Amino acid sequence: MKNLTKLRQNIVVLSVLLFGLVGSVFAGDDAPSWVSQVAGSSIPAYDIKNVPAVVLLDEYVASVDSGGKISTTSRYAIKILTNEGRRLAIARGFYLTSGSKVTDIDAWLLPPDGKVQAFGKKSVIDMVDDPDDIYNEGRIKAIDATDSAVVGSVFAYTVTTEESTLFYQDQWSFQGRLPVLRGRYSLNLPSGWAASSVTFNAPEIRPQVSGSTYTWELSNLKPITWEPMSPSVGNLAPRIAVNYGPADAKGRSFPDWKSVSTWATPFYDSMAIVDDNVAAKARELTANAKTELEMIQAIGTFVQNLQYIAIDIGVGYGNGYKPRASSIVLSRGYGDCKDKATLMRAMLKALKIDAYPIIVYSGDPDFVREAFPSPKQFNHCIIAVKVSDATQAPSVIVDPKLGRLLIFDATDAYTPVGDLPDYLQNSLAVALAGDNGGLMRMPLLPAEDNKVERTLNVSLTDSGELKGTIREHSTGQASTGERTALRRESAADYRKTLERWITRAATAAKLVDFKTTDQFANAAFDLSLDFTAPAYGQLMQSRLMTFKPAFVGRRSGTAFTESKRTTPISLDEASVIETATFELPAGFIVDETPEPLDLKTEFGTYRSTYEVKGQQLIYKRHFQTKRSLIPAEKYAEVRDFYGKIRDAEQSPVVLLKK
Amino acid sequence: MFSLRSSSRSIAVSAVLFVFVFSASIYAQKAAEWRPIPPADLQATKPVVEPDADAEALIWEERLDDTNSDKITRSTYVRIKIFTERGRERFSKLDIGFIKGIAKIEGLIARVTQPDGKSIEVSENDIFQRDVAKTERVKVQAKALAFPNLAPGTILEYQYKEVDKNIFEVDSTIDLQLDIPVQTFSFYYKPFKGRDPKFSLLNVEALKFEKAEDGWFKMVRTNVPAFKEEPWMPPMSEAKALLKLDSGWYPSISMDLSARRVTVFKNTGGRKEGEYWANHSAWQKPLVDLLNDRKKNFSKLAPEVVGDAASPEEKLRRIYNFCQTRINNTDYGYTPTDKELDQVDNERARRGLSEDDFKSGKPFANTREINNVFGAMVAAVGLDPWYALTSRRDVSFFTPELNDSRLLTFTGICVVFGGAPHIYNPGNKFLPFGMLPWYTEGAVTMYTDGKQYGWWEIPMNTFEKNRSRRSGKFRLTEDGTLTGTATIELTGQLALSYRLAHFDNEALENELALKTSVQQRITNAEVTNISIENLEDTSKPIIQRFTIKIPNYAQKTGKRMFFQPGFFDYGTLPAFAASTRKFDMFFRYPWSENDDIEIELPAGFSLDNAEAPAPVADSAQIGRDEIHFDLDANSRTLAYSRSFYFGNKNLVSFKASSYAAVKALWDKFHTAETTLVSLKQNE
């Protein structure tokens, strides 16, 4: 089977072949004057080491005609500072086969000591943007100069495009992670049109206005380095959102969030078609459901288990905002997020339960900003089901106009009805409910609904062997993580994952047996495993034995390796409670235990205790964090919190032979 | 599915053309081509081949028709039963890439059958064609479809025919084992001109082609488990079941460039040992002759370089060093200046470098030309340069009996003296004289002057030569913080691998990489003053130095402090975690580690226990780990020394059946290396 992974590999190989075939470079050409000009820019020293490249110029000029057609010209130049930076010497221009095109793309490479290399049409490769989709109109024209680029080179390109815009709105980020010497966004509007902007992640950037040309510009932006648990670049880099157009631009700009709802609602409403098949399937699925929640669960589980397959046609004409008819989605058994939400809506409608599509941004709960009413802020669709007071679930919110709404993501196959993926929690989203719709905040499920309770019942022998059972009961998103691992990995691979987990805790540890119980409807997951770990306790001179009571850690760790920090720290809701009971070897007594630890901060707590009861040592630890965005200035406090936990969990218990 | 080994074949995997337009009549006709599904398969709820499989191919049939002189046709028929959601997700889409103009697909159809026997065919409107990537000259297209209503219990099927204009495709390696378990894997082959199939099998029980209908030959495997990679496994060609189809001929004409002569060899008509390799050896003659012909271009320089060297080895060493250091190697980051490029006229490009090019400074050349210059200079001082062709041990464990010259690649210039061949590759900028990359060590090489040839197994560096020497001077404070400096010296293959992986990085990149590698083990380590020395100087070891501070390196209890004196193994994980193993284990080369660490103990504490672990070794002494502790009471300094090696007697491959023993040995290594020492607070 040539699945998509295979195809992706092939595409890479093919691209290499194609680039190899097309390597038509003309040495000795002159670069345009703007390239020569920016190439001479002096590069400041940055605090952050190892910056791969610096953007000398990032300029985007959009010219809009009165019919809404846009011509754009991008000029971009980087200086490559490290070997890693060579891979950035690629020019890219995105377009949709429906409604837009890249009319020209040219690139130049200025090596430190050599002649200018110009890359023209023969160097252009035109490829799909997302090879995972069965069909996607998104394409990229690219020129790859990575083979020729050396450290110290300047790589520059221009891309011109033409497109018909759906909205008189745009967003522009002045940087990614690279430092930028100059970033500029210009809008040339027809006479009589006007533009306004809002700024995110930076003080307000005011445009320079000359006639009907608006220009926003920033310079000398420092690099944004990757740091663990940092917000996304989209929430760190300065960006603007722009509204423009004539005075009356209905349907193409949005004065408020309600207008976004009224614009998009008809697309969805018209596709939530309850035909005989949809109604029959809804009835069949809910035949045994006794409550409203059970009906929603039955429908939700069915829809979320349909295959996610995106086929995007006519996106440039607005079809990216339109789902397929629910009847078609049901008959084919697959669809994208819009399709799934619409099918679920139609099936609920057949059961006389109202529901609304919710458009949301997937991947960063803080991305969407209230100050910019626009469909362009969203990339995902979920559903809000109107529920009665009888339906109680953590993901229920109350909207002043729409009432009690159960929020559900029908695309995530691992998060059940009643729970919500953590990357959507607390984000701003739009309910598409016509005049009653608008911006609303998604629920944030507390740590108590998202925890791991772990119990260890183990015995330590006089040779230091540890054996026993670990039981974990996970709920909420913690259970989703466990469920995802179980379902995504084959049975053999899942076993190996568990083996690696206990082997990290103890060399030569052996997994004897394990059992999982997925209580999907309750958003819970149980894991039980039996193990042995020879020589876990280290014997010293036959009189002392030491062992670490914190046997296993979380499956992913938090590592704050750097002493300084430039970006805020983003924490999630999480809770881990462990009780470990060690049956101690006969003839040994507890000589020393580590100091108990009790940490309380505004973002999290941790508490560990040790208790000796006869030949038993009972070790307890409780870790909890809440969703927080902690400023970089408080990094030392966060690092200290995690550092103290790490040190405490490394500390051994000392047994003494009587 | 066919999976081809060379890069060009990787392309060919995708070389399938899609015929986009289906007529209704054709579609109806194709609908009749589905083979009936036995009721037992429809009702099956458990896989047959592997009990935990998410999906299982009930039928996987490939037909390779090579009867036509200008095309090759492959037909594929696949039937897969889905057992789990994971299987559904994995096989829900079919995506076939191809290069337009080279290949095309005919008759792609697909369907899903429910357990009750009802089938839904994918309609032509739901089969998409797209340009995956295109340039002015080449267009890679793909045809994609999604299987409708796929769910556990359902069966998906698809079939298509690929017509390929690449007639050399027949020289291909066919996977007889897929990434999905297969109940019945059938490979049909119809060779050119009614010949019998010529083939070889790798890693699979004895199979043979049997005559089938209409000129086809058929090879069938049943209950084939899925192929899954494991860490530390041998190269794919030593693990996966493969069928190698041979074209049945061997190039029979050799062009002798130096003499402008064409030599016609006897066509062996097949692959008989001796004749086959004799032909392959003779095929190298023009290349060897070229070296001898070029010796006149170095008639003055070569003797000057050799100077007063008397032995062949010393002469070769001097020429080697000259070629490696006096020519700028464009394959290792050297970019010629415009002036240098202007000086390369057509004549120079044709003849290559000569001694005149060294008069004005340091010329530039690529790896191949540097080796040719070396060979020509060797010839110029009266030695005979031969060609060495070797299989890469990371590709195949080659033996001449395989009769497959595709597995051999140029390794270097060979000179026979002292009764043994010696191979040199100065074109590799970082290869010290007398050494070869790890993947050729232990491999069988053909050395030939074009008239005669021999086979030789290239010896491996011993573990003593591939050494990591690590030392550190640290101070442990009363609060458990460890501070000090560490030095790591790499020699042999360890140094070569490091140089090849890092030579083109900026110094800062390498320093950060080193810092990251330390912090991956010790997350709270503060690493400063990093330096990496001798990256370019292959006569010296790679030396990495850094200063480190690790708060709470030692764990404190009420009156004791515990720490791991084996600093360089702190935070490491056991090498093997899995309890079971399918494939053999393969380590690249033997190596050794020597640690010398001094740790000054904190004031107010005295040694409570410093019981060094007992030496760990296997009975055959393939690996050994020996640790000693020594306390200098006056300076309150604990000395930790560790001597480790693995791969003694060049034993670096182990059967899967010995996994438990190998894992146990490595677990013991790890336990010994992570031993704790306890200090007690003075009363």
Write the layout of secondary structure elements.
The complex is a heterodimer of chains A (658) and B (683).
Chain A: H1 4-22, E1 25-27, H2 33-39, E2 53-64, E3 69-80, E4 90-96, E5 100-110, E6 117-119, E7 125-128, E8 135-136, E9 138-144, E10 154-164, E11 169-173, E12 180-188, E13 194-200, E14 208-210, E15 213-221, E16 239-245, H3 257-269, H4 276-285, H5 292-304, E17 307-308, E18 311-312, H6 326-332, E19 334-335, H7 337-350, E20 355-360, E21 380-386, E22 396-399, E23 403-408, E24 428-431, E25 438-441, E26 451-460, E27 466-475, H8 476-488, H9 491-505, E28 510-519, E29 524-533, E30 538-540, E31 544-547, E32 569-571, E33 574-583, E34 588-592, E35 597-600, E36 604-613, E37 616-625, E38 628-630, H10 635-650, E39 653-657
Parallel strand pairs in A: 2-12, 8-18, 17-19, 26-33
Antiparallel strand pairs in A: 1-6, 2-3, 3-10, 4-9, 5-6, 5-10, 7-9, 11-16, 12-15, 13-16, 14-15, 20-21, 20-24, 21-23, 22-23, 24-25, 26-27, 27-29, 28-29, 30-31, 31-39, 32-38, 33-37, 34-39, 35-36, 36-37
Chain B: H1 7-13, H2 24-31, H3 39-43, E1 55-65, E2 72-82, H4 85-90, E3 93-99, E4 103-113, E5 119-121, E6 127-134, E7 139-146, E8 155-164, E9 173-175, E10 182-190, E11 199-202, E12 210-211, E13 217-224, E14 242-245, E15 253-256, E16 261-264, H5 275-283, H6 285-294, H7 301-306, H8 312-325, E17 328-329, H9 338-343, H10 346-351, E18 364-365, H11 367-380, E19 386-391, E20 408-417, E21 420-424, E22 444-448, E23 453-457, E24 467-476, E25 482-490, H12 492-502, H13 507-521, E26 526-533, E27 542-550, E28 555-556, E29 560-563, E30 585-586, E31 591-600, E32 605-609, E33 616-617, E34 623-632, E35 637-646, E36 653-654, H14 659-673, E37 677-681
Parallel strand pairs in B: 1-10, 17-18, 24-31
Antiparallel strand pairs in B: 1-2, 2-8, 3-7, 4-5, 4-8, 6-7, 9-14, 10-13, 11-14, 12-13, 15-16, 19-20, 19-22, 20-21, 22-23, 24-25, 25-27, 26-27, 28-29, 29-37, 30-36, 31-35, 32-37, 33-34, 34-35
Helix pairs in contact in B: 6-11, 8-11
